[in-house]
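Deliverable D4.2, example record:
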Amino acid sequence: MRDVIGTTKYLIHAKIETNGVAERPDAVGAIFGQTEGLLGDELDLRELLKTGRIGRIKVNISSTQGKSSGAITIPSSLDRVETSIIAAALETIDRVGPCEAKIKVERIEDVRDAKRKFIVGRAKEILESIEEAAPETQEIAERVKESVRLEEIAEYKGLPAGPGVRESDAVIIVEGRADVLNLLRAGIRNVIAIEGTSVPKAVIDLSKDKKTTAFLDNDRGGDLILKELLQVADIDFVARPPQNRSVEDLTRKEVIKMLRSKVSIGPASIKLRGKPVPEAAPAAEGEGQGLRRLEDVISGLRGTLRAQLLSEKFEQIEEVQVRELKERLPQASNVKAVVFDGVVTQELAGMAAERGVQYIVGMRSRVEAVPANVRVLTLDDLRKLRYRR
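Output generated by the structure prediction step:
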């Protein structure tokens, strides 16, 4: 590693085999000669060597029983894609000196990993040796901590992930690398990204062994990914940001809040798992009166854009504008039912569950994961139940 130039990002490791006796100069000559003009002027090895973007090519080769074999190491300060192209070009070399030859790339090593590990380890030592930061330096300290978290992004079977995915008993599934970075900023390390619309096998396997939370954008793309996850993976909880917000855009406080308000997968999600949903059972005699009351209230609220909070006896506690419901509901107590002229969202269902609300009734519902102990109903649902009572 000491011989590698300071700007090196990657090391290409390859093995070489020939069917005759060959020496180091033969291999180096073949590398430059047989790749010349192959990749154009921008990726010509001689030019890259002159400008320092490719370091000194190392070839260790030895001969035995009339054949030669060895290892090739090429330092690169190019980006990941360009380095991969150079590595692939090596495998086109078929002769070294007078001998037929075969070169196979074994791996591309990210040299910066070793540097990151040193930085993190050394930073911890320095942190332990200094006094606690004064209050006026807290902002600087937070920036340093955030930089370290960004360096901690790792991979799990080719997917962007936090360093805590392997050892944690729980895992959070997000959509992309930017979401992983944002959760690392918030101090959450047991996170993994799907990186696409198709759920990878690695994520499916993880969900079977760990408590799994799907934390997806609150848009159509997030809805489609959630449906697939519920069909192919074992999802225990669902968390969603506010409508039309992305996980990568949330602040640390918002991330923590959304994850704390996650909801467990309930009966409404069984259909998404590919299993039939049992038809709703007729209401019991006592419950039937309550459902009739809920139908009366929701029918009366239709077109008003208002909401009512109902007591244990389904009597009105308070009536507010629908737009004020999210602000008012967390402050209310002894509420058995929330009825309003609007759409029941996943966020509202989660808030109702937190407050011990048993019924939340709206004109329509977009809830995919019903919280435990909460019944989500629409006006149409109540009408259908009326005919079955």
